[in-house]
Design brief:
32% of the residues lie in helices and 23% in strands. By secondary structure, it is of the alpha/beta class. It has a single domain, classed as Metallo-dependent phosphatases (Purple Acid Phosphatase, chain A, domain 2, 4-Layer Sandwich). The strands form 2 sheets. A 6-stranded mixed β-sheet has the order 3-2-1-11-12-9. A 6-stranded mixed β-sheet has the order 4-5-6-10-7-8. Helix 7 runs antiparallel to helix 8. It is globular and about 50 Å long.
Length: 244
């Protein structure tokens, strides 16, 4: 099985469409979205519609949970909270019901998917350091061979031994059976690793091989949509150019 795995689209339709074209070109067998289809960007309903139509699994992200009334987001900073309020008003009733129904995790045999740390799914904890990945050692036996996560908007991979965690620093690697892996797949619509290109990943379970991928899209067009929407912070558009 060749999986196309992506996360954190954040209502950026241009980036999503670019990634989906790459998945078509790569001839993947199944698509998995690891959450946060909404939040920040200018086209939440269109992104929900497209993700719904093409994925084998879509996981609940924290922004999805907020927009669909499944979590308290009153403590979010003003601009993020206002974007979520706006998106709740823009998403169709069908897409809202879809967001309300999304699971916190999914499993295909030994390949697992969740938005944040698998340690406590409903808390959406981050994993983008070795120390954070190490908190999952106590549940080593329950982890899949590979657990794919999003949330941090960073491309990171960790190999978990039974007593120690190692960061995997290559863009593509083979999975070794003596380890469990946690892979943060980056962000389609709002990368934060100083690379503004949309991030996506491919995992071939038959070959045991994983790859980080990037693709360019029309950042200026998406940013302009954000600038034109007075209820969204201009900062959400400006940061797209720098990938932060």
């Amino acid at each position: 099985m060749r999986y196309g795995i992506f996360s954190d689209t954040h209502a950026n339709l241009g980036a999503l469409e670019a990634v989906l074209r790459e998945f078509d070109r790569e001839k993947v067998d199944a698509l998995v979205c690891i959450g946060d289809t909404v939040g920040y960007g200018p086209q939440p309903d269109e992104c929900c519609e497209k993700v719904r139509a093409v994925t084998r699994h879509t996981i609940l992200g924290n922004h999805d949970a907020a927009v669909s009334g499944r979590m308290d987001y009153s403590y979010y900073y003003d601009a993020a909270r206002e974007a979520l309020d706006l998106h709740a008003s823009l998403v169709s009733s069908e897409n809202m019901q879809w967001l309300k129904s999304l699971p916190y995790s999914a499993k295909d045999d030994d390949t697992h998917f969740c938005h944040g740390s698998p340690l406590d799914l409903e808390q959406f904890e981050y994993i983008f350091t070795v120390d954070q990945a190490s908190t999952c050692i106590p549940i080593w036996e329950d982890l899949g061979q590979v657990t794919f996560i999003g949330h941090s908007h960073l491309c990171k991979a960790y190999a978990l031994g039974r007593e120690r965690v190692y960061e995997v620093i290559t863009k593509d690697f083979e999975v070794h059976p003596e380890f469990r892996y946690i892979v943060s797949v980056g962000s389609v619509g709002q990368p934060r690793d100083h690379d503004p290109r949309a991030s996506y990943t491919i995992y071939d379970t038959d070959r045991g091989r994983f790859e980080f991928k990037r693709v360019e899209y029309d950042i200026a067009a998406t940013a302009q949509r954000i600038f034109d929407e007075t209820r969204l912070s201009d900062s959400f558009g400006a940061r797209l150019f720098a990938g932060v």
